Automatic annotation (TrEMBL):
It comes from the Bacteria. This is Uncharacterized protein. The lineage of its organism: Bacteria, Pseudomonadati, Bacteroidota, Bacteroidia, Bacteroidales.
Length: 220
């Protein structure tokens, strides 16, 4: 009887030890899980000679940066954000690697600080001349510009937060609308938009996605 009691106590003790070891192991595994790198955006537009910041929302410190092609931009981590400076016109991919080996990529679009022509135009999937006798018209508001062709039933609407003033604009979008049956409205979230200049009532704007750059020059 005593032997049986001793055996039962031993089994209970062994079960308790195993459960504690299992709990310790699971806690250890949970504590050592590292977060993947998460960025606040997947594409960023920067003007030549200017700088913008990219926020790393999660990841392990000790970041390293590599561009798909050198010479277009630089990246430096300071003050808990990535400072990216545009060097010359072009598009590159920035790969960020943390100390755990996790990686994330962001498209960097460097736009020209000055557009190469003052000709009034809208450029996106081709060029629309805005100062010629054609079916395209322009409507300008404080926070949007619409380029419309009533004959074709097509309209481009570029909009942003804030007013029509020189500088980088937040939350910029490009909508492409059509009156044709079955054609849905496209709403494109832009990587960036900047009003480069407003001089002699001539306004120059450049905007982009990760893979495409657009521009509009018009008379206010």
């Amino acid at each position: 009887m005593n032997n049986m009691k001793y055996l039962n106590n031993y089994i209970v003790f062994a079960v308790l030890i195993l459960s504690q070891l299992s709990l310790f192991t699971s806690c250890k595994d949970e504590n050592t899980v590292s977060e993947l790198i998460r960025l606040d955006r997947t594409a960023i537009q920067i003007k030549e000679g200017s700088e913008d910041v990219l926020k790393i929302e999660s990841g392990s410190a000790g970041y390293q940066f590599a561009f798909s092609t050198e010479g277009y931009a630089t990246a430096e981590y300071r003050d808990n954000v990535v400072h990216i400076r545009g060097l010359k016109f072009g598009k590159v991919v920035l790969t960020i690697t943390d100390s755990e080996g996790h990686r994330a990529t962001v498209y960097v679009v460097v736009v020209s600080s000055v557009l190469n022509s003052d000709a009034q135009r809208f450029v996106w999937d081709g060029t629309i001349e805005l100062n010629k006798a054609n079916d395209w018209g322009l409507t300008v508001h404080e926070n949007s510009v619409a380029v419309t062709n009533a004959m074709e039933g097509k309209q481009f609407v570029l909009s942003w937060d804030g007013i029509l003033s020189v500088g980088v604009k937040e939350n910029a979008t490009l909508q492409i609308l059509s009156s044709k049956e079955g054609v849905e409205t496209q709403k494109i979230e832009l990587a960036g938009m900047e009003i480069l200049q407003i001089q002699d009532n001539l306004c120059s704007i450049v905007f982009s996605t990760a893979t495409q750059t657009g521009e509009i020059v018009f008379q206010k």
